[in-house]
Amino acid sequence: MTDNRAPRAARxxxxxxxxxxxxxxLVVFLVALPLCVGVAVASGVPAELGLVTGIVGGxxxxxxxxxxxxxxxxxxxxxVLVFExxxxxxxxxxxxxxxxxxxxxxxxxxxxxxxxFRAISVSVVEGMLAGIGLVLIAGQLYPALAAKAPDSGLDKxxxxxGAFLHALSAGQAPASLAVCTGTIAVLxxxxxTPARLRVVPAPLAAVGLATLAAFMLxxxxxxxxxxxxxxxxxxPPLSSFGVLAGVGALGxxxxxxxxxxxxxxxxxxxxxxxxxGPRTEYDRELIAQGTGNTVCGLLGALxxxxxxxxxxxxxxxxxxxxxxxxxxxxxLLLFAALLPGALGYIPVPALAGILIYSGxxxxxxxxxxxxxxxxxxxALVLSVTALSIVTVSMFEGVLIGLALAVVKTAWExxxxxxxxxxxxxxxxxxxxxxxxxxxxLPKILxxxxxxxxxxxxxxxxxxxxxxxxxxxxxxxxxxxxxxTTGTEPVRMMTAG
Length: 496
What we know:
Layout: H1 5-14, H2 18-42, H3 47-59, E1 72-73, H4 79-89, H5 91-110, H6 122-144, H7 153-158, H8 160-167, H9 173-189, H10 202-216, H11 229-232, H12 247-272, H13 282-299, E2 305-306, H14 308-316, H15 323-338, H16 348-362, H17 365-374, H18 376-391, H19 394-413, E3 416-421, E4 428-436, H20 441-449, E5 457-467, H21 469-482, E6 491-493
Parallel strand pairs: 4-5, 5-6
Antiparallel strand pairs: 1-2, 3-4
Helix pairs in contact: 2-3, 2-10, 2-14, 2-15, 2-16, 3-13, 3-15, 4-5, 5-12, 5-13, 6-16, 6-18, 6-19, 9-10, 9-16, 12-13, 12-14, 17-18, 18-19, 20-21
């Protein structure tokens, strides 16, 4: 009699967590499917390209080393930037931008720059996500109202009152708004349903119920346009790389690279806190993300980042190895190959509801309130970054946030203390302690100019840790002009 236990034991020893990873992959697939489609539609590209990016995130990035349980794909956080890039550069150039982004990420990983992304101000990153969330919410309210969204973030916000007023008289708007509102309601209330229903992820349940309601009730709402997977894949022509010579295109590449890398590595740090398995190798993860984006660029698809929603679902579903995320990419490929026509039944306002909900989660209201109580400077950086993204653009907003964070840090590092010892007669002793930089010059000079001019002054600089050129020059100029005629000049004492 043949004993089949030995081969079975060998398979179990080789893939000890296959059952857990298989189950988790199905959960992640069901979470990723509506998000991939929604992000693509909101980015102004064919819905199938969102699936392509999800497939690459699973089958390519998922196989590589870095973060074993993190799941990659199209992210809501990149939606606004992709939409602006497609509008300004055209869809054919998107592939060139994404491919270049991927190459830069791989280069940064090889140069071991991944760890430095952890030094980016958390307030800037949260402000960036908050700004994206606000623009995303404002932009998706238009398809929820069966209206066309303006191009800029500020116009999106400013045009909302008019869009709501117009919706009151528009024939399609009430049904569209009802589908969007119902989708958001399902997302909010799904966690209160019985446990046997919660086996289905909330995003899939919300989109599925909205699709069923629109079909059964014959609601007059727009649905996703289906082009076919192969028809949607358009590798960037060589001519599209010429666009990258422009300053605007280069700025877009830099923004893609910084934001995709920062979001992926911050997500990796968050995922590491959710499980006790191997920790993230940041440089390898950056190489994995870059490789995935290079492939996405070659296919003309959306850029990818690691996505915390899918990653958290992966961990919570019991995934133990990278097999779960690879399998999830396989399920997306099967769906795109076998059931592409199913996308054509999905109502656009349902996807808008998914993205409005996702955008709201990007706005850290609780974190902002805590920062305002404890670190108002950080709260200011977060707020300015977010508002700059809404009012100007993504790239300029992030640069403004980074510049403000640097100025804030420099200001806080420029602690300066002036101790004056005045006995009423004889020399006045002034001692400076801390870091003397140009940022503190007004405070230093105001204090020194209040010293008596008719008595000798001894200025002791030996307590300074740092004295920059601007401050030294200003102090020397003050010393030259301070004393009145007949009074001993200011004496400056420095270390060494």
